[in-house]
Amino acid sequence: MATEAVATYREQYRREHVPPHYRGWLHLIFTFGIGGTALVWSALQVEQVRPLEWLTIPLTFLYTNFAEYWGHRGPMHHLKRGLRLVYERHTKQHHRFFTDQAMELDGLRDLRAVLFPPILMTFFITAFALPVGLLLAWVASPNVAWLFIATSLGYFLNYEFLHMAYHLPAAHPIARWPLIGRLKRLHQAHHDPRLMASYNFNISYPVCDALFGTLR
Ligand SMILES: [Zn+2]
Ligand SMILES: [Zn+2]
């Protein structure tokens, strides 16, 4: 059950930030359909991978885990020049829409408050994955570049899936997977307004939280 303050904010958010033409299922198709197609397409570009090149996958995992941690601990919770939209959407909206006492969305339209908007998703992919991919193709090899792009896309889609799963109703079949339950408890603690600026910044796997002493 949402608390009164959350329920009031949810009504306001739905009025002000969810346009009438918004469809949650289209948002899901954009994220996982287009994102998934791009992931498969990049993975299909690799050919005759040398043993050392496979290292790109675990290294990219660590890099994206750090990016998730840094992005969340930094601009998502602290207002930074040029990144106001990220701060507003996360601290001002997502954390008011969901608290540790009210983690569940009420329907598909509430996905608006959970998934990255298509514009931000496109921006992050073009601004971060593409330049690093091009650089890697130049200094390492095309295989390394494609493995990097495919792994970071996979990481992003996994992040979106897990975060959505944490905010599904507790009775939903996905919310009942044991791994989701354990990871959700960490994210739920992060949604406690007293803890949100200090703990559990990894939304997927708490590798950097463990490394930097912010795991709770
Ligand atoms: Zn959340
Ligand atoms: Zn947060």
For this entry, give a set of tags.
mainly alpha; binds zinc ion; single chain; 216 residues
The description of the largest β-sheet is: none
Number of strands: 0
Q: How far is the first residue's CA from the last residue's CA?
A: 24 Å
Q: H/E element string? A: HHHHHHHH
User: Which percent range describes the beta-strand content?
Assistant: under 5%
What number is the mean pLDDT?
95
Count of helix runs? 8
Structural class designation: mainly alpha
**Rg, Å, rounded:** 18 Å
Q: What is the overall shape?
A: globular
Runs in which pLDDT lies below 50 for 5 or more consecutive residues are none
Helix content: 55-70%
Care to describe what's here?
The protein is mostly helical and 216 residues long. 61% of the residues lie in helices and 0% in strands. The protein is built from 8 helices and no strands. Helix 5 (118-139) packs antiparallel against helix 6 (142-166) and helix 6 crosses helix 7. It is globular. The chain starts with a helix and ends in a 5-residue tail after the last helix. The model has no long low-confidence stretch (mean pLDDT 95). The structure holds zinc ion (ZN) (2 copies). One zinc ion (ZN) is lined by residues 72, 76-77, 90, 95, 190, 196. One zinc ion binds next to helix 4.
